Amino acid sequence: MSALKRLADWYLTQCDGLWEHGCGLSITTLDNPGFSLKINLKGTQLENVAFERLEVDWDTDDRWYTCWKEGGSFHAAGAPSRIEEMVECFLTWSCSSHG
Question: Rounded to whole angstroms, how far apart are CA atoms 25 and 15?
Answer without folding.
Answer: 12
